[in-house]
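Hi support team,

I'm filing this because I wasn't sure whether my run with nicotinamide-adenine-dinucleotide finished correctly. The job status page said complete, but I'd like someone to confirm that the output block is well-formed before I use it downstream. Pasting the exact inputs I used:
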Amino acid sequence: MNSYAMLINGQLCQGTESFAVVNPATEEVIDQCPVASVELLEQAVTAAKTALANGAGTLEQRRELLRACADKIEAHQEEISQLLTQEQGKPISQATNEVSWAVGLLRKQCELEISKKVLRDDAEAQVTVTRKPLGVIAGITPWNFPFYIAVHKMVEALYSGNSIVIKPSPHTPLTTLKLGELIQEIIPAGLVNIISGDNDIGALLVKHPKVAAISFTGSVATGKHIAAAAAVDLKRVTLELGGNDAAIILGDVDVKEVAEKVFWNAFSNCGQICVAVKRLYVQRGIYNEVLDEMVRIAETVKVGNGLDAKTTMGPLNNVMQYERIIELLNDAKAQGAKVHCGGVAQEGAGYFFPPTIVSGVEEGVRLIDEEQFGPVLPILAFDEVDEVIERVNNSSMGLSAYVWSKDKDLGVQIGNRLEVGIVRVNTPTTESSLAPFGGMKQSGIGREGGVWGIDSMTDAQTLSVKH
Ligand code: NAD
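And here is everything the job wrote out:
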């Protein structure tokens, strides 16, 4: 009997098979995870459909459910955080934050109204536009923020009046299964179902004819497969995909202050964040100063098992990602990159790779052109504002970008010209938890977050009544 179970139609259940989930810090098996068979997938989707037929409840009832989930998760925060660090690798403080964000999101969402617009209301006619839930949502999640992203998809689906079947990444399924266990007694049977398995079960889920919409967070490559699968019966899609996010530091900044923020923007969660800084452009006059400061900070980082309270950077999450980072770094070195710190994988068990700062390579090298999603940061010099904007925009991806300058107006002007879904000027975060989140170009389609997330989970219905 595994310690973790799937949630299908309000029941916790095992599959006939299971697979091992590995702790990336030790390479030891944490536990076995059930595999959903095709029959169990069918049961989950049917339960989600039936639950909607029975009614998803009023908005106020749904708010109560989400608030109860928030309280339950909060009461189990430590247990979830420990498990999250074990399956994902991040330091325990960052895992604790991830669980807190999920709790905060559950509560914040309940403050939103679902819009109803009256376009006309006069002696002749009334025309209103309301938002209608889509139906059964397939929620597919990645391994970098497995708990938060699963909660996010659940919140937006339920709040908007849908039901959901969530399938976590096979690298990090356990905290999502734990979520199912915690909410089992709160959520009416079938409104939230959680199934686990490999990529194939995800592919079957998104193809299922009873699934009305897909909310996917993951790589660009998988996003394209999902868009193609969705096209068959025109399912709605929200695709939150990868980015090759740039930070631009102008020559007028306080280097020490900005470098510290940019450093953690690049290396937090071992660089495995969709909106992490993945290429850093520094105006030439302060280039060496920024490089030196970034290297100095890198050398203070304590790489280790995230369960150790002193650790500030954990391992990469899985062996594929670990090998990819080594491959991209070797390719950059072969093309003349200079490695200023790190650069050599740690010996022994675990997918540990130290924070690595690289110079001497430009666009045309894979480390600059592709999303590395790991702790190797290239720093590039630029001279003119127009030049750097062109270089940043010259990418097939467009998730987020950062601009740092004492001249806030100039920062905003630059931000306005960047082809990305999220711009942050003089801040490492978006300063509102209700802002839309998502990318331009191949970084995605649609938006999560705030009222935009509700729009993605609903369709507009126009009701026109002639008096
Ligand atoms: P991935 O695309 O490999 O896998 C994501 C999920 O899709 C997993 O659950 C996987 O099992 C499933 N899957 C794989 N093939 C599938 C298929 N054909 N049909 C249906 N499901 C399938 O991504 P990953 O490696 O887990 O995550 C890393 C990527 O996610 C990075 O590119 C990162 O930038 C991106 N990401 C984006 C955001 C965002 O909001 N934009 C947030 C976090 C991560």
